[in-house]
Design brief:
Length: 634
């Protein structure tokens, strides 16, 4: 521990999240008396950074923490790392303010990873299972999921190649470079479990910081040698006689090539193909226009009249970022959003907390665990439909209505001085039927600016000079930005994927993408999708956590192939059908499935193709290892 005087330690502790700090200090000092029952958090205050502690409780906790830190600094105390599961359960119970259920304990112990730098690493290697066999894996995409898959494959000694159409790693964080772009999951949780950072500059990092993180991971994990940049997969065909996938790829210079691999992993994600709106006259506009995911940095917005079509997740980040530069800003809203109050959304991590994360043994892990638990269920219970609910269409249950009332009160307080805007921004659909966005007041302040105009009239068409709405008003602008999302339901597009017996994947789906556990499809042996159908998270968790579950499962499938000297591993049709029937039924019982409001969670036919309707614990349990009975192995 770097030397700090008493005053600095006292100052730093005031910036800490106290429940995880006390637990980390109890582990570091071996003094479990720090975990006093009267200081345990209240689980009813799961969004409070201090767990609902009263002022007196916070003072007492800080005194205990300061004395323990002084003891560590002066070498007066110290303890061996706690690894006993029952002692860890006691520590978890204190920090969470409630007993840890038996079914959750294995999951939580794995997430906490006490005594293990990488508890999810494969515990096998190809050269010990099937050393003489020629076997390779092709991974499509070097974004978050692709890098993760490549790392696990390298750890297991499996030959691989990563095919990336761009010039650099990062996926969505490379391609989305619009002003204001940032993550909306706390960064200490939105990161790989095996590559955690204690020095995140902000709680919710901007795009450049995240891109740098993934670049550093590619460097530090030695992945770049396995990546072929500027290489796009156009088609893939499964050859049953060889049990291999043949890939047709095109390089940046236009040259084509055929590659072969035993296993194909798609890591292209869901949000990688921008969607432009079907608006009459879109090509008629005479000025610059572009999608937010294809930001044209050659266009100078300073002093310009700008229109942004859309008020989704990207729009509410980029609009405040450009509002100070433009002369006039028209914001076209089709459907208002619910906003979760997030006071630290743009805040830097305080100096004291950064010091504690860096210097206090285990504080980083316990803080990540604190975030994980608060997000593992999140507001998911408020999304579940109560069949007996009769309180109106703006909620799906009493819990949902409580959330709706809380979020409405927040908007009412924010727009108390602008009743004209309040009427336009309060949604009339259940919370979580669409993606809930985060705001610390920045969005609200932007909408209130004199030169920012919220337009809710339907767009009739785009003209040469601007945008004509259904009320007959044509607003002239210099630049149009389409913040209209992605072609989320068109999984693996535009690649042509041909499986066993010449079946085309997209034709077999008939517009309704499905996969067992979001990863495997009958008729397409040895093909695995990461962030595939019905693996999007809405109300809880982090997509990186889900990706780690998925990659662990895929590694288990590869191990099964190698151990049993199999050529092809294919999901059974009955297993696939039963699983997807359960997922569809689960989504029908959630706000996003029951509500009729438009959202990117549904495809053109109205089926929810994106979301996972159950808990993180259930997905973790189902993906711990593959059940050989779910597959045909040939």
């Amino acid at each position: 521990m770097t030397f700090q005087d008493d005053a600095a330690i006292e100052r730093f502790v005031r910036e800490a999240h106290l429940p995880p700090l006390l637990v980390a200090l109890a582990q570091a000092t071996g003094d479990l008396a720090l975990l006093r029952d009267d200081l345990a958090p209240d689980p009813a205050h799961d969004r409070d950074p201090q767990g609902g502690m009263t002022a007196d409780q916070r003072s007492a906790a800080r005194r205990l923490a300061v004395e323990a830190l002084k003891g560590l600094r002066d070498g007066r105390v110290g303890g061996a790392p706690v690894s006993d599961p029952e002692v860890l359960r006691r520590m978890m119970t204190f920090m969470l303010g409630e007993p840890v259920a038996d079914e959750y304990l294995p999951l939580l112990l794995e997430e906490l990873a006490v005594g293990a730098e990488d508890g999810r690493a494969p515990d096998w290697r190809k050269d010990t299972i099937d050393p003489g066999r020629e076997f390779s894996v092709a991974v499509i995409g070097a974004g978050m999921s692709g890098l993760l898959a490549a790392h696990r494959l390298q750890q297991a000694g499996v030959p691989l190649v990563v095919l990336e159409k761009n010039h650099e790693v990062g996926g969505t964080w490379l391609e989305n470079d619009y002003p204001g772009c940032r993550v909306d999951v706390p960064n200490h949780f939105y990161s790989y479990s095996f590559a955690q950072r204690d020095d995140w500059p902000q709680h919710f990092s901007p795009r450049d910081v995240l891109l740098d993180y993934f670049r550093r991971c590619a460097d530090d994990l030695g992945l770049r040698g396995a990546i072929r940049f500027g290489t796009e997969v156009e088609a893939a065909e499964f050859h049953e006689d060889r049990g291999t996938w043949r890939l047709m790829v095109r390089a940046a210079d236009g040259g084509s090539e055929t590659l072969e691999a035993n296993v194909l992993i798609s890591a292209v994600g869901q949000l990688n193909r921008p969607r432009l709106p079907d608006i009459e006259g879109r090509e008629a506009f005479s000025g610059p226009s572009f999608h937010s995911a294809q930001w044209d940095h050659t266009v100078d917005l300073r002093g310009k009249r700008v229109a942004v079509i859309g008020t989704g997740a990207s729009a509410i980040q980029l609009i405040p970022a450009i509002a100070g530069d433009v002369a006039e800003l028209d914001v076209y809203q089709r459907t208002p959003n619910w906003f979760m109050p997030t006071p630290n959304y743009h805040d830097a991590v305080p100096e004291g907390m950064r010091w504690l994360l860096t210097e206090v043994p285990s504080y980083g892990r316990w803080y990540r665990f604190w975030l994980f638990w608060r997000l593992v269920e999140g507001v998911l219970p408020a999304a579940r439909v109560d069949p007996g609910w009769s309180g109106g269409p703006d909620a799906v249950s009493a819990r949902s209505d409580e959330l709706r009332a809380m979020l409405t009160q927040h908007l009412q307080a924010q727009f108390a001085d602008r009743p004209d805007l309040l009427e336009q921004v309060v949604p009339h659909y259940p919370p979580l039927a669409k993606r809930i966005l985060l705001d610390d007041g920045t969005w609200v302040r932007t909408l209130k600016r004199d030169h920012v105009h919220l337009v809710t009239d339907r767009i009739e068409k785009i003209t040469e000079r601007g945008i004509l709405t259904a009320d007959g008003c044509e607003r002239t602008v210099d630049v149009i930005v389409f913040a209209t999302g992605f072609q989320a339901s068109r999984f693996l597009m535009p690649m042509r994927i041909t499986g066993r017996d010449g079946v085309d994947l997209h034709e077999s789906w008939e517009g309704n993408a499905r996969a067992y556990l979001g990863m495997t499809v009958p008729g397409f042996p040895n093909l695995f999708c990461l962030y595939g159908p019905n693996t999007n998270l809405v109300a809880n968790g982090s997509i990186i956590y889900f990706a780690e579950c998925q990659v662990g499962y895929v590694m288990g499938c590869i191990r099964l192939l190698l151990e049993r000297h199999g050529r092809a591993l294919e999901c059974r049709r009955g297993v696939y059908d039963a699983y997807n029937a359960a997922v569809d039924a689960g989504n029908a019982r959630m706000a996003w499935g029951a509500a009729t409001v438009n959202s990117w969670y549904k495809n053109a036919e109205g089926r929810v193709t994106q979301n996972w309707p159950f808990t993180l614990q259930e997905y973790w349990q189902r993906t711990r290892q593959p059940d050989p009975g779910d597959y045909e192995l040939r």
